[in-house]
């Protein structure tokens, strides 16, 4: 049973593009459908974490909106941060699913059995993962992963109840 999902940001939760305003502010676009699925996952009592190599105020803001349990930015060794979170939560790596798109995600992806990658991920990562996805990063890939997990864990009816009350 998956208790924790770990999400990379650039190229997974976003399409990987970074825009800068004329004032130098970084701008990223997040898919609202991914957000709905992440928030639902958390509302169902599951845990979520963002582990990303970059630091962005926009990621912090979005993660707080979605009630993401852990927001870890500026992380070079993602595998070490994943171990730390699992120890803190007393969650076995066998109960973790990771979604990432590039080589900097590989260290944490090889630690767990359930790995997902957007359709446009680095070919090495896409070939390596247990569950290659049909949607691209920033275009619903994270939502697709959560949809798969909810169905596998027989939580889909509870998910639907969140929106039919």
Structure write-up:
By secondary structure, this protein is α/β, with parallel strands linked by helices. It has a single domain, classed as Rossmann fold, CATH 3.40.50. It has eight helices and eight strands; from the N terminus they run βαββαβαβαβαβαβαα. Strands 5-4-1-6-7-8 form a six-stranded parallel sheet, sandwiched between helices. The chain has a two-stranded antiparallel sheet with strand order 2-3. Strand 6, helix 5 and strand 7 (114-117) form a beta-alpha-beta unit. Helix 2 packs parallel to helix 7 (141-152). It is globular. The two termini are 26 Å apart. The model has no long low-confidence stretch (mean pLDDT 96).
List keywords for this structure.
single chain; 165 residues; alpha/beta; Rossmann fold; six-stranded parallel beta sheet; two-stranded antiparallel sheet; 8 helices; 42% helix
User: Helix- and strand-based class?
Assistant: alpha/beta
What portion of the residues fall into strands of 2 or more residues?
Answer: 15-25%
Residue runs with pLDDT of under 50 for 5 or more positions:
none
So, CATH architecture? 3-Layer(aba) Sandwich
Largest sheet: 6 strands, parallel
The coarse silhouette is globular
Strand order of the largest sheet: 5-4-1-6-7-8
CATH homologous superfamily placement: HAD superfamily/HAD-like
The CATH class designation is Alpha Beta
Total DSSP E strands: 8
With helices defined by DSSP (H or I, 4 residues minimum), what is the helix count?
8
Mean pLDDT across every amino acid position: 96
**Rg over alpha carbons:** 15 Å
Order of helices and strands: EHEEHEHEHEHEHEHH
Approximate helicity band: 40-55%
Distance between the termini: 26 Å
CATH fold-level assignment: Rossmann fold
The tally of structural domains comes to 1
